[in-house]
TrEMBL record:
The protein's required cofactors: Zn(2+)
InterPro entries cross-referenced by the UniProt entry: Cytosolic_carboxypeptidase, Pepdidase_M14_N, Peptidase_M14
Domain of life, source organism: Eukaryota
Chain ranges of the Peptidase M14 domain: 175-466
Segments of this protein annotated with the region Disordered: 435-466
Biased composition (Polar residues): 435-446
Protein name (Swiss-Prot/TrEMBL): Peptidase M14 domain-containing protein
Similarity-based family: Belongs to the peptidase M14 family.
PROSITE patterns named among the record's database cross-references: PEPTIDASE_M14
A Pfam family annotated for this UniProt entry: Pepdidase_M14_N
One Gene Ontology MF term: zinc ion binding
A GO BP annotation: proteolysis
Amino acid sequence: MAAYTDALDHTSIYRRAACDSEESDGEGGLGNLSRLIVRPPGQSGKAKRGQLCFDAAFECGNLGRADHITDIEYDLYVRPDTCRPRARFWFNFTIENVKQDQRVILNIINLAKETTLFDGDMTPLVRSTSRPKWQRIPRRLIFYHRSLPHRGRKILSIAFAFDREEDVYQFSAGASYSYSRLQKHLATWEKRAQAFATRQSIAQTTQKRRIDLVTIGDYNTNKDKEEIKEEPPVTKPIKTAEQKKRVVLIMARTHGGEPPSSFVCQGFLDYLLGSSEKAVALRNNIVLEVIPMLNPDGVFLGNQRSDLLGGDLNRCWNRATSYAHPALVAVNDLLKKLASEKNVQLDFIIDIHADISHEGVFVRGNSYDDVYRSPSSSPERRVLAGRVLSPPLPKVSSPAMQALPGRLSRRHMLKSRPKTVLDVDLMLPIITESRQSQIDKSNSGSAERLALDQLSDEYDTHESDS
């Protein structure tokens, strides 16, 4: 696949590109800092070298406020999600106008959750215009601690030294994956996969962005066979089992602040382009309906969980409206269509997420205790997900997840699940025979490492091409 690097060219969100949506100028970047020079109190006029310029008015950017504490210390505040003030974790901003060897301490003050992977080995990322490859800030320079000057709040402090005056430095909670990058990737992927896949827009968001649906495989179950000219002997008619086409729906990026889910989804789409035995079997035997980005507005705006109107799409399935949740309405319509088809069997709905509190790769879902509830509730189908996902996955490191029972029922999930687990009965009241599984990829776990490895390969390709 062609390598796409997010150029750190300091493009303002208020300068709309030709391929961007019409309403992006008026809404995008609302509340983000836009090239703000942070000076000591009482100073004005032309900015001197070393008076830092903060900017987050670009796609996926997030920084709402920057305060000058001392010449080396700055307090930074994450901008809450639009219309959802309690969602605050994702940050992504740039700093320029630095001095050679200038040392600073950046305090990120208002993270919404105190228990995060910053308690462990996860650290923010940094890159610059001369070094566009993301790098993790060394752990010895990161301090996640309770600060008495900040009323005992747990803050994230970053000690950093700028080594090149001409560079623009970008700091982020994780490797960002933008809506624009997805559109570029799908445009190239579609050309290579035109023999077995189609791409269409099933809805438009509030800000007129596409909700892409990629269909891989063919719904036609009738295979071409040679006609037999000889008349078969007269026998009693034998009833043959109706052959149904197996369908799996995959969704990603319900929340803007979970870019690892986009990297995982892109890797899966690229894998299906290959000629391996498994890739060919997947393309030929099942139909994959893939929605790579369910919340483009939230991604574009740099929100952690919500869309433009403040709705958490993971909690709105049972009350979705065409005005506020066009993506959910489109998915519900797709599911109704699949449920009405007699020759189609929806096996799984896989919703890929990322988690800021748990490491590793883990699956949350539901099954039914009543074997006779429907034909799709057979024990064989219930264990299918475990068999599909059983090849080497990293071990679950969270004690809370290790304590969950091996056979998850709805009763077990209600007792033991964290608050972030999706309630399937609220999500899909119209589809009772489907299985919903939610795969969480942690920002510092294997998914993030895969994302960074992928970025490294892309940068290596980009450098070699240039």
